[in-house]
Amino acid sequence: MEILLAIIIGVLYAAGIYMILRRSLVKLIIGIILLGNGANLLIFLLGRITEGAPPIIPEDSEVFLEAYADPVPQALILTAIVISFGLQSFAIILVKRAHKVVKTDDLDEMNATDEDS
Amino acid sequence: MKTLILKTASNYLLPLLLVFSVFILLRGHYLPGGGFVGGLIAAIAFVLHAFANGLDNTKGLLRFHPGFLMPVGLGLAFVSGLAPVIGLDDPFMTGLWFPEPFPVIGNVGSALFFDIGVYLVVIGVTLTIIFTISESA
Amino acid sequence: MLAAILLGFLFAIFLVFAGKFFRGKLAVLSALVPGGLFAYFASFIPQISSGDIIHKTYQWVPAFGVDLSFKLDGLSLLFTLMITGIGFLVFAYTASYLKGHKYLDRFYGYLSLFMAAMLGLVLSDNLISLFVFWELTSISSFFLIGFNNTNPASRKSALTALGITGFGGFFLLAGALLLGSITGTYSISEMLSIKDTIAGSEYYILAVIFIFVAAFTKSAQFPFHFWLPGAMKAPTPVSTYLHSATMVKAGIYLLMRFTPVLGDSQFWNTTLIIVGGITMVYSAIHALFRTDLKGVLAYSTISALGILVFLIGLGTKSAFLAAAVFIIVHALYKATLFLVTGIIDHQTGTRDVTKLSGLRKIMMPVAIAGILAAISSAGIPPSVGFLGKELTYEASSHAETFTIIIVIAIVLTKILLLWAGFVAGIKPFVGKLPEAHKEVKAPDFLMWGPAIILAVLGIVFGIFPMLIESALVKPVVSSLGADASEYHLALWHGFNTVLLLSGITIAVGILLYFFLKPSVKLENRIGKLEFISPKSLTEKGTHYFSVFSAFWTNVFQNGYLRNYVTTIVLFLVVLVGYVMFGNPTVLIDYRQLSEVTAYELAVVIILIAGVFYTVFTKSRLAAVAAMGVVGLAICLIFVFYSAPDLAMTQFSIDTLTVILFVLVLYRLPKYLTLSDYKMRIRDGVLSVALGTVICLLALQVLAEPTNSEIGDFYAKNAYILAHGKNVVNVILVDFRGTDTLMEIAVLSISAIGVFGLLKLRLKSTDRSQ
C-alpha cells in the first residue's frame, strides 16, 4: 500500500503543478487544492502508516498498551486541512475580484502590478 | 432547491446537528472529535439550514453576525491560555484541571475552554466566508 | 540612566503631538532637554574622576545575552557631556537659525532622536544594544542631512551618507556577533576580562577588520570619507552637532572603547596609524582647494578625525592623553567655527569665502568667537588647542618606528589645519566690507551666544587646564587602559623639540595663510582629479550595480506566474533528481509494507481517476465534482490508516469546499484552455517529472529508519500530564496550544479578508472600471 500511496502523491503533485501552470484563473485554484492534498498525504505517509490503531488511549488504561499511529503528523495535517479551507476561500474570492476588476481570466494578462496597465 | 421535505427536515436537523457538534466537541479529548471538527459540523448545519430556508431566515435565527464568534472564540482561547499566568504565575498555556471529573463531560480544565474557543472561531470563520460569498454571489 | 537616554526619544515622540507649540517662540525651550541632561551627567564628574565606574543593567533578551546594560566611565562621560553640552547650545542656536521654519518641530524631533541614540551608543556596555543605537544615529543623520527634502542634492547626499554608514553598521554587527561567538558574551566589560582569549583566537584579525570598517565609515576615514563633505548639505546646526562634534566621533569612540580589548597588537596599531595618517594628510590638502566655508570645515574635520585615529594607533600613554585632549579641543573650536559659518550664511546668504570680508564691522561678537576658535584651532597659546598640539607632537615624536615620517606628516597636517582654521575663523571678518554686504543685519543673541561660549571655553581651558585635567582627561585615559596620573597639563613645558615644532607650525601656517588665498581656480584644478576619487569610483560602482540589478530583476521577476513556478519546479526537479541519481537504488523492504486489500485498491483507482478527470475535463462543474471525489477518497485513506480525526475533518472541509465552489462557480471566469498544444506538452513533462521525483523521494524516505520520539513523548504523557486520551486532540489544544491559537488567528484573518474583499469597495480601480 505504501507504494500505491507514493504513486498517488506523485499524481497529486503532478496534477497540481500542471494546473498551476495553466493560464486560466480557476485552474490555478484547483491546482493549489490538489497540491495541498498531495502535501497532506505526503506528511501522512512519511509519518508511517499504521492500520487499525488510532492514537487514542484505551478506555481502561492510562498509556498505550499496543502499537499506535504516530499522532504528530496527524495533528499537523489536521491544522493544515482547516487552514487550507481559509486559503481556498480567500483565493477564490481574490480571483473573483480580480476577474471583475481586470476583466480577464488570463493570468498572462495580469503581469503588472501597476494599476494603469 | 427549496423543497418542502428539505425545509421540514432541516428545521429538525439544525438543532440535532448542533447538539451533535457539541457532543463531538466535548468528547474530543477522549475520542475522535474536538473543536475543529465540531465547529465544522455546526457550520455545515447552518449552511444546510440556509440552503433549505434561505439565507435571511438563517441569519434571523442567528440574530447576530457570525463574524462576532471569531473575537469571542479567540478571546476565550487566549484567556484560557493566559489564566495560569495571571492566577498562578505559571508559563503561558499551562494546563489547569479541576481535581474531580464532572459527570457526563469528564475532566474539565483549561484545555476544554481552549477547545471551545477553537470551536467558536471555526464556526465564525466558516459562516462568515460562506454567508459573505452567498450574499454577493 | 535609562530614563536619561529615553528622555530624548520621549521628547521626539512628544514633538509629534505637541509640535506646533515648538514652531514658534517656545522653540528655545526645547534646549532645556539637553541642558537638563548635561547637568545630570555633569553631576557624575566627581564620582568618575575618583575612579568609579557606574554600571546599570536592564534585561532585554536574556536568552540571547542581549541586555540594555549601561556603563558610565571616563570615556563615556566625556562623550555624554559633549553630546548634551553642545546639544544644548545647538538646540538654542537652531531656535534662531531656523526661526519660522515650517518643519522646525520635526527638526527638533530628529535632533532629539539623534541625541538619545548617541547617548545610548556611548553608554551601552552591550555590543548588540550598541549596534542598535549605532544604526539609530545613522538613521537620524539621514533624516537631518535630507532635511531640505525638496533639494535633490540633499536627498542624494543623505542617501550616500546612509549607504556608507549603514554599510559600516553591517560590519559592526558582524564584528559584534564574531566577538560574541569567540567570547560567549556581548558585554564589553566581560570581554575586557578575557581579552587574551580574543587575542589568541584565529578570528582575531577578522574581528578587528570588522570593527575597523565600522569605525572608519562612521568617522569618515579614507577611503570612506566622501560622505562627510556631502553631509554638509544639512542645515548648519546639524553639521555642527552631528558632523563635527558628536556622530562622526562615534567611530573614534568605538576604537577607543575597544583599545583595551583588541588594541594590543601590531596589526591594530599599524593599520590605525596608516589609515589615520593618510586621512589626515589627504583631507588637509583637500581643504586648501575649497572655497565653500563648510567644505573647508568638512575636510578639516575629516583631517582632525584622521589625527584622532592616528593617535589611537600610536597606542602610547601620551598618545591617549593627546587624543583625549584633542577631542575636547576639536569639539570646542570646530563647533564654534561651524556656528560662525552658519551665522555668516544665515545673515549674508553666501558661504563663498572669496566673497566674504570685513564682517567684523557688522557682527563683532561673532568675529571674536571666530578669531578665538581660529587661534585654538591653530594651536597658538594660550588656547587649549596649543595643549592639544603639544601633546600630539609629544606623542608623535616618541613613535617607535618611522618617527621622521610620522612627525613630518603630523606637522604638515597641523600647518594645513591652521590655514583652514584661519580661513574659516578670521578671513571673513578682516579687511574691507564689500558693497554687497553693507546692508547685512546683525545676528541675535541666540545665534552668537552659543558660538562665543564655546570659543571662550577654548581659551579658559587653555589657561586653566586643571579644570579639565582630572575631571575629564585622565578618566578617559584610564578607560583606555593606561595610567596617566604622573602627567600634568600645562601650557609651558620648557624649551624642547616639541616647542620647536610648534613654532615652525605656527610660523609656516601663518605665512601660508598670507600667500595662499582660497580661489575658484584652485578648486577647479582639483576638480580635474575627481574621476579617480573614492567618491566617483563608488558612484560608478553603485550605478553599474543598479543597472545589473534592474537587468537581473527583469529576467526573473517578469510578472508571469507560470514562469516563476516553472523556475522553482525546474530547480527542484534538477537538484533533488541529481542527488537521488547519485544513489539510484530505492531500497524497499517489502516485508514491512502493509498489504493492499481490494477496497483499498478500489479507493486508489477512484482517486487517480478523479484527479485525471479534474485535470482534463472541459467543464468547471465536473472539475469541482471530481475534486470532491478526490477529497472523499483521501478521507477514506485516513479512515483505513488510523486517523479518524483527519477523516472527519477532511470530510467536513471537502463538503464546505464544494459548497463554496458551487456558490461562486458561475461568477468565476470560464474554464478556458488558453495555452497552445506545445506549451501543454512542456508543462505536462515538467509536472510528470516533479511527480516522479516526489514519488521516489517518498519511497526513499520510507526506506530510512523512522524516529518517532516526539510522538512517543506525547503519547506517553497525554493522559498523565494533560488528562486526555485522544492524543491528536491533546497535541492541538494542550501540548502545542500556542500554535493552534495562532492558527485560529490566521483563519480569522482569512475570513476578515474575504469579508473585506467582497463587502468593501475598492477605491480607485472600482470607480474607473
TrEMBL record, chain A:
Could you state one GO cellular component term attached to this entry?
A: plasma membrane
Subcellular location(s) of the protein? Cell membrane
Which InterPro entries does this chain map to?
CPA3_antiporter_subunitC, NUOK/Mnh_C1-like
Q: Please indicate if the UniProt record lists Transmembrane as a keyword.
A: yes
Q: What is this protein called?
A: Cation:proton antiporter
Q: Which domain of life is it from?
A: Bacteria
* Keywords per UniProt: Cell membrane, Membrane, Transmembrane, Transmembrane helix
The record's family statement is: Belongs to the CPA3 antiporters (TC 2.A.63) subunit C family.
Give the species: Salegentibacter salinarum
Automatic annotation (TrEMBL), chain B:
**Membrane-topology annotation of the record:** Multi-pass membrane protein
Residue ranges of the TM segments? 12-30, 36-55, 67-88, 108-133
| Keywords (A to Z) from UniProt | Cell membrane, Membrane, Transmembrane, Transmembrane helix
Domain (Na+/H+ antiporter MnhB subunit-related protein) spans: 5-128
- Pfam families xrefs: MnhB (PF04039)
The main location is: membrane
Q: Which domain of life is it from?
A: Bacteria
- Presence of keyword Transmembrane: yes
Q: Spell out the InterPro entries in the cross-references.
A: CPA3_antiporter_subunitB, MnhB
A cellular-component GO term for this protein: plasma membrane
Its annotated compartments are: Cell membrane
Task: Name the PANTHER family for this protein.
Answer: NA(+)/H(+) ANTIPORTER SUBUNIT B (PTHR33932), NA(+)_H(+) ANTIPORTER SUBUNIT B (PTHR33932:SF4)
Family of the protein in this entry = Belongs to the CPA3 antiporters (TC 2.A.63) subunit B family.
Protein known as: Cation:proton antiporter
List the top taxonomic levels of the source: Bacteria, Pseudomonadati, Bacteroidota, Flavobacteriia, Flavobacteriales
UniProtKB/TrEMBL annotation, chain C:
- Keywords tagged on the record: Antiport, Cell membrane, Ion transport, Membrane, Transmembrane, Transmembrane helix, Transport
Q: Residue limits of the NADH-Ubiquinone oxidoreductase (complex I) chain 5 N-terminal domain?
A: 63-108
Location (main, coarse): membrane
Write out the transmembrane intervals. Answer: 75-95, 107-124, 159-183, 203-228, 268-289, 296-314, 320-341, 362-381, 401-424, 445-468, 495-516, 564-581, 596-616, 621-641, 647-665, 685-703, 741-760
Q: How does it sit in the membrane?
A: Multi-pass membrane protein
Can the keyword Cytoplasm be found in this entry's annotation?
no
List the subcellular locations: Cell membrane; Membrane
One term of GO molecular function: antiporter activity
| A GO biological-process term | monoatomic ion transport
User: GO cellular-component terms in the record?
Assistant: plasma membrane
Q: Where is the MrpA C-terminal/MbhD domain?
A: 605-670
Residue intervals of the MrpA C-terminal/MbhE domain? 680-759
What range(s) does the NADH:quinone oxidoreductase/Mrp antiporter transmembrane domain occupy? 124-413
Quote the protein name from its UniProt record.
Cation:proton antiporter
Q: Output the lineage of the source organism.
A: Bacteria, Pseudomonadati, Bacteroidota, Flavobacteriia, Flavobacteriales
